Amino acid sequence: MPSTQLEEKERIENLEAMADVFNAYVVDPVFFVHHALGHYTWSKQREILRAVRDHKFTAVRAC
């Protein structure tokens, strides 16, 4: 394969891998916060993240 075809194949593989990660972000907001933002979440924060994903409305009681 000429180098341009090889580079194009690698570029497509990289885009597919990125698409897999972005799809994981949509499915799992906790994964997004940990992986993309680099933050650790408490159990209650994880519960809220999942509730926001799963329900049209989410209410959270203030501390």
* Tally of contiguous helical segments: 3
Mean pLDDT: 91
Shape: elongated
Percent strand equals under 5%
How does the helix and strand content classify structurally? mainly alpha
Whole-number count of domains: 1
**Helix and strand element order:** HHH
Spans of at least 5 consecutive residues whose pLDDT stays below 50 are: none
Major sheet size, sense and barrel closure: none
Radius of gyration: 18 Å
Helix content: 55-70%
Tally of strands: 0
Structure explained in plain terms:
The structure is a single chain. The protein has 63 residues and is mainly alpha-helical. 70% of the residues lie in helices and 0% in strands. The mean pLDDT is 91.
Q: What is this entry, summarized?
A:
The protein is an all-alpha fold. Helix content is 70%, strand content 0%.
Write the layout of secondary structure elements.
Blueprint lengths: L2 H25 L1 H7 L7 H12 L9
Helix pairs in contact: 1-2
List the main descriptive attributes of the protein structure presented here.
elongated, single chain, 63 residues, mainly alpha, 0% strand
